[in-house]
Task: structure prediction
Amino acid sequence: MDNLDRLIYNTTFTVNEVDFATVGSFWKNIVSFYKYYRIYLVTKGNAKLFLKGKMINLEAGYLYFIPSYSVVSGDCLAVLGHYFLHFQAGGTLDNILGSLDFHHKIKANAFDEQIFINMMETIKVNPPTLSSLFNLHGSLQLFLSRFLADAKIVHYDISRFDKIFDYIDKSITEKITVKKLASLANLNETYFSNLFKKTIGISPLQYVINRKINYSMTLLFNNNYRIKDVAYYLGFKDEYYFSRIFKQKTGMSPSDFMNSKKQNI
Result:
């Protein structure tokens, strides 16, 4: 078993929700922040999602992969009919899925709607059975296989970074240096940085910042932390630097992000 096989074999998928909804202008008040990955099948209408730094148009007849922690707002001027699937991926795949280079929009086929309908019925099975779990996870992986068909990944180096990912998540509130990460990998800084970017798609420093910003979104959205508290808690030198990085990564300031939560209540 090579490292790419091991990556898929060790990934634990959890399907959190599968359903269909027709939404209108109120949609923007419920779509803003979500920590899970999403797959949409749009059946009618159109809408816009504003992700970190970009905007995507949702249109009928297409499947969309929406990365976790990515949506900061949305807009539906008329109507949008769509199936949606929320899921989590554990292990190394969760660490790299948001950084892989692949198509996040693909043409739907004649069987996709029925797959969603089957998943909607299957997820209602309580308690879940062996058959229902295989059905859910198999359908999810079928969708992912199509999105990731052209994903570029240097598979023989992935497992080298397992210890790095684990350290970053456990030390997310501390100052994390490339020097420390390189030492954990037993490599010099330059070689480590180049190998990490070649494998994951972004530099180790950008990966650390992305993880910190994702965590900060959870803190700001779900709790009553002040921006200053979150900035210092996550190891940023001050709230102004944190706010600048947050806006650069999400497209809005921390205060605007917190206000969007209040509008959704």
